[in-house]
Amino acid sequence: MDSEAFRQWSLKAAEWGVDYRDGLRERPVRPQVEPGQVLASIAASPPEAAEPMEAIFADFEAKIVPGMTHWQHPRFFAYFPANAAPVSVVAEYLVSAMAAQCMLWQTSPAATELETRVVDWMRQALGLPEAFAGVIQDSASSATLAAVLTMRERALDWQGNKSGLSDAPRIRVYCSDQVHTSIDRAIWIAGIGEDNLVRIPTGGRFRAMSPEALESAIVEDRKNGLLPAGIIACVGGTSVGGTDDVAAVVEVAKRHGLYVHVDAAWAGSAMICPEFRHFWAGVEGADSVVFNPHKWLGAQFDCSIQFIRDPESLVRTLAIRPEFLKTHGRDGITNYSEWSVPLGRRFRALKLWFLLRAHGLEGLRTMIRNHVGWSQGLAQRLGREADFEITSEPMLSLFSFRHAPAGVDDLDRHNLALVEAINRDGRIYLTQTRLDGRAVIRFQAGQFETTEADVDQAFEVIVALARAEGEPAAN
């Protein structure tokens, strides 16, 4: 592809992107395809000769787009959002065009220094104290793994990376049953083992882990010769928004010298609004905090910020400094590859810089406040319907509900069928979860361009399909 063709197709792709976003409301949120359908439409062997871009782009439109779930759809109410505000997309064009490898200060000085600045902007926006420094990771999964590795090394007096775990005492990490499965994976990869992830009983509206049960578990483990290393607290869990009492968790941790990591991957974005910060009161006492601007704030995936109270502990855990990665003749520089598991790093800070400047904190606060208010309004409307029950009250913009009409014996089957009927219909997209052993339906508002009218339509779709004769089957 020569320069002129590069220009032509870059413009074509940008224009396609605008038209795509403008037409999302006319598309079903989830694609109407069967497993294997897209695969069967793609040539089984790679081409020997070059093909024209016209043919490639036409196949993209005809074969790929119809098989995509549209995460930027304003009526995407499933999972958590993976927003890509238009200004973030523009920034990503520039990142892709430069294609920089930002692993070291010397490999892209501006990328490193912009990351330092915008991460501190976000620290200020969230109300975190100056004691926290931060780094942009690819996802909360990587940030949690980095935190678990750090708590492991600290508990082993920094000998785990050197000597391995075979002769080490069994390490214990504590959390509730509301945490994301990324915590389980971090425990696996860190070599701690699933049997040593201790699930603390939860209770209350937000299913917080019991501080008393947490302390008892730590004391009992120490008595039995095990090695408590850290606690992972949850703020806004994926299932129904489970949220721990962070201040109480930190107090327990301090008494026992344990490392605290706070997973606020989704809910952390809402903390730019001061009125929501009570949900993570005490967070200033944590050692590590993660939240994802690529969820609710509008920074295109991937963009996850990990704040760390003691960066030296993280660097001591993860940094490897062979001669070819050293920067000679420069003092006081930061190499963010030493703060993360991967060596390679994308220029993620640029889209966050564009986003914050183009929308301002107040613009982003307004969006989040709207989502919370609209979601709470929908929960109230559904709760007033005689055949619906709200199974978990809204945590920010997330709640769960259940359709429970008289005369239906198997409500789990009924509600799972209802979710599938809603998603086949295509106007909105929801997901299910299990709460206290029962199948329930999740709703969260968070897509960047969602309006109140989109949430109103969700009410209409949910109620109409729930009550449609024979859809879903009652028994």
Automatic annotation (TrEMBL):
Listed GO CC annotations: cytoplasm
Keywords per UniProt: Aminotransferase, Decarboxylase, Lyase, Pyridoxal phosphate, Transferase
PROSITE patterns on file: DDC_GAD_HDC_YDC
Pfam hit, one: Pyridoxal_deC
GO MF term set: carboxy-lyase activity; pyridoxal phosphate binding; transaminase activity
Reported cofactor(s): pyridoxal 5'-phosphate
Residue(s) carrying N6-(pyridoxal phosphate)lysine: K295
One Gene Ontology term from the biological process aspect of the record: carboxylic acid metabolic process
Membership in a protein family: Belongs to the group II decarboxylase family.
Identification of the protein by name: Aspartate aminotransferase family protein
Annotated organism of origin: Aminobacter anthyllidis
